[in-house]
Amino acid sequence: LTAMGEPSMDPSISAADSTAQQDSLFSMMDVFLISLITGLFTYWFFFRKKKEEVPDLPKMQSVAAPVRDSSFIEKMKKTGRNIVVFYGSQTGTAEEFANRLSKDAHRYGLRGMAADPEEYDLSDLSRLSEIDKSLAVFCMATYGEGDPTDNAQDFYDWLQEADADLSGLRFAVFGLGNKTYEHFNAMGKYVDKRLEELGAQRIFELGLGDDDGNLEEDFITWREQFWPAVCEHFGVEATGEESSIRQYELVVHTDVNMNKVYTGEMGRLKSYENQKPPFDAKNPFLAQVTENRKLNEGGERHLMHLELDISNSKIRYESGDHVAVYPANDSSLVNQIGEILGTDLDTVMSLNNLDEESNKKHPFPCPTSYRTALTYYLDITNPPRTNVLYELAQYTTDSGEQERLRKMASSAAEGKALYLSWVVEARRNILAILQDMPSLRPPIDHLCELLPRLQARYYSIASSSKVHPNSIHICAVTVEYETKTGRVNKGVATNWLKNKVPAQNGSSSLVPMYVRKSQFRLPFKPSTPVIMIGPGTGIAPFIGFIQERAWLKQQGKEVGETVLYYGCRREHEDYLYREELARFQKEGVLTQLNVAFSRDQAEKVYVQHLLKKNKENVWKLINEGMAHIYVCGDARNMARDVQNAFYEIVSEFGNMSQPQAVDYVKKLMTKGRYSLDVWS
């Protein structure tokens, strides 16, 4: 402060006067500054502080609180459970098996619970030994090319990284797979092996279910040996026969606000009226069908190309991804079930879980009507599993029909054979069973409890987002066949899609959908050659691949050889995307177009025959060009035959023995140079 006053001081003023003046100036400045500081502090205290206090309000803290209790151990202790059955499920079958095993437990004086691994912290497995007579069972499906299902991905990642000591854990695994796939039951095998490596004790051998054979029979056979092993291990005995225990109770709503009733939504109520991203399995986007055209010129089948508008959805996809659609059952099938059971299908009801501690409060979104449940939520077209037949048997008034149902649900060889012929091979769905057993008239609410959920259907996307950022294209063939009983069965999704009319208001043109990411990807470098093999609707992802390569070429990028091996029955009947492929070839994007017409000559010609015919060129692309190979379509025959053709080519031109050639191709798969997108 003194320094501030120095320049204004007059040298002629005496020392005393100068001191008095400085004292006066100091006291004035001091008062001014103290007042200013006090004022600023007061302002800060009363105004600023109030704003800062807002985040500390209790309601803000509750938002950040965990939405679920992630400890299955605490839940088991609280509810007196000692068996937990985890399921890795993509289509609902593994979840269904898990529920059946957890219900079985009561027969042995044990209590079970089915659990979704996505909802719990699986590192708690090391604490399961805290519970007496405890056991963890894993029903694990394998998805795609040896991958875990979506809900088991975190569990799989944890198993890979874990160094936990699971020495106190007792476990058993049942895997669900399909032998037509390269990596049969990879997830079940991995979980079984990895748990043992971490010190866990296997109390029963790994079960391997094969969906290409009879998955239900595989499960029953494993289950009937599994429980005696559990009894022996824990020193317990069966307390009685399998009995029917309802898991849900019926509540009929006579006076309900219809705005609170589900009408087909998968998750949030009114989510179809008020759409909010992000869109996924529990929150699908309602896409408008903008194009639906028949692709084939003749023949009995109906092959179609659909375009779904995803504008304003913020949905992103890559070539090779899958689009999942939620279909609806045929209204005539739903009405017939209602008529046979003498039910008012528009009754609004809820099925509430009798176990109040269960995470699964309802078997499907409730409250809803029986009509909505049978149309959007329940699978009424697939042959029912044996546990459904067992539970339904109590509702027959004819002793012969009851005995027949009970026999098919038994583990006896005769019963298994009868179930296989009368239900599986005859493709009898629930409606056909009700029609063929006139005394079987179950309450509709129990039937709704027993039927599995209607699942989303996956299709390989037939477009590139670089060319079509606001639409997703589907290529599909309608499924329709006559059964051994003379009935005509129709594929749920393909026949529902077939009837979607573009540019028509209302639900007739809307498709609930979401995108599932895939590993089926074009090479990172556009200059890398690609060999694509996709007969029939297996051409779908390759239309997207070729569109993308054309786009890259337009951007001035160097694009490598793009080779397609396509096959169909007849050139003038079911040659899909003929004009598009011809245009791509003319433009020089599609460098080779090899088409096998299997029925246009006496001897059948398939894509594998054309590969062998061009074997020298194929080997050159693989060996010198470092080409990536893509196979899409039928897993049961085509994919295997194509793979065998590559073994032959590699063996001949690489001068390798058969085992060496097999190893070479397997290594291409490991390196991501041989990719499969197949189904059976």
From TrEMBL:
UniProt record, GO biological process: response to hormone
Gene3D superfamilies given in the database record: 3.40.50.360, NADPH-cytochrome p450 Reductase, Chain A, domain 3, Nucleotide-binding domain of ferredoxin-NADP reductase (FNR) module, Translation factors
Chloroplast in keyword set: no
Cofactor dependency: FMN; FAD
EC number: 1.6.2.4
Span of domain FAD-binding FR-type: 282-523
InterPro entries on file: CysJ-like_FAD-binding, FAD-bd_FR_type, Flavdoxin-like, Flavodoxin/NO_synth, Flavoprot_Pyr_Nucl_cyt_Rdtase, Flavoprotein-like_sf, FNR_nucleotide-bd, NADPH_Cyt_P450_Rdtase_alpha
Endpoints of the signal sequence: none
Broad class of enzyme this protein falls into: oxidoreductase
Pfam families noted in UniProt: FAD_binding_1, Flavodoxin_1, NAD_binding_1
GO molecular function, one term: NADPH-hemoprotein reductase activity
Keywords: Endoplasmic reticulum, FAD, Flavoprotein, FMN, Membrane, NADP, Oxidoreductase, Transmembrane, Transmembrane helix
GO cellular component, one term: cytosol
Superkingdom of origin organism: Eukaryota
Annotated HAMAP family: NCPR
Protein name as annotated: NADPH--hemoprotein reductase
